[in-house]
Amino acid sequence: MRDIAVFSGSAHPDLAAEICTQLGAALNPVRIQRFANDCLEVQLQANCREHDVFLIQPIVPPVQEHLVELFLMLDAARGASAARITVVMPHYAYARSDKKDAPRISIGGRLMADLLTTAGANRVLAMTLHSPQVHGFFSVPVDQLHALRELAAHFQAHDLSNTVVVSPDLGNAKPASAFARMLGVPVAAGAKQRFADDNVTISAIIGEVAGCDIIVLDDEIAKGSTLIELMDRLRERDARSIRIACTHGLFAGDALRRLGDQPDVEEIVCTNTVPLANGTTHPKLTVLSVAPLLAEAIRRIHNGESVSALFHDA
């Protein structure tokens, strides 16, 4: 069997180190140099020849900077005669650019997928892509994990006798339904319409939420505009309490404070797929680790074992 070589860009070194600890593999050093003309140079500082190479880099702000780092790491690994190169991408920011919903706009999710393949990616390991079609943007094999089991295990410690899982929109209803089945509770969904990045309207809640303890499940939280709007609708329908769960806690700007300071929000739960912006935290925030899940997926890919058991029930 080929040797494994794991490298990380600068996007989330703490997660990369935790993955390698779980994997029992070394996290090899990477030198990233910026020249006077603002161009980057990347050097992988360990042998890659005929190795099974894994490059860990969530695409998080500054997005363009981290993408270029990843392209350069891919090119460096390919030029160093790596046997196979797998991109471990816990968060793919361009997944939100997944359709042409206005004239003369690009589908960034597909373009960046093409560029990753062109740069040298042979395989992608991702987590909770924004929409199902993003998986099909890649021309190389993609293993998409989810954090529903980790989130469900956390909430199973609570009294769920009067709980309803609520999806902010119908597009997220399938994962929300899977999450509700894991918890053994009903599911509801918001009828959402987005007019701009921070202009969202939820006209109705489909399902019964009156007097219930709510767990809102979304794939990611950026500005939090959708959740603020959803919570207004839930209050109008006399929801008793609200907990918020997501995979990718981006919390741009003051989103975490805006959500956490809502008096009926009891808890905000996310995973560590992305680093907390500027070390932001809040007393109501709980961060769950997905490093064991990602490490197990890497181990299975390296050993040629099935990965599907890790995401089969969603």
Automatic annotation (TrEMBL):
Biological-process GO terms, alphabetical: 5-phosphoribose 1-diphosphate biosynthetic process; purine nucleotide biosynthetic process
**Catalytic activity as recorded in UniProt:** D-ribose 5-phosphate + ATP = 5-phospho-alpha-D-ribose 1-diphosphate + AMP + H(+)
Alphabetical GO CC annotations of the entry are: cytoplasm; ribose phosphate diphosphokinase complex
Enzyme class name: transferase
The molecular function GO annotations come to:
ATP binding; kinase activity; magnesium ion binding; ribose phosphate diphosphokinase activity
> Could you tell me the superkingdom of the organism this chain comes from?
Bacteria
Cite the Pfam families for this sequence: Pribosyl_synth (PF14572), Pribosyltran_N (PF13793)
Q: Which Gene3D superfamilies match?
A: 3.40.50.2020
- Protein name (record): ribose-phosphate diphosphokinase
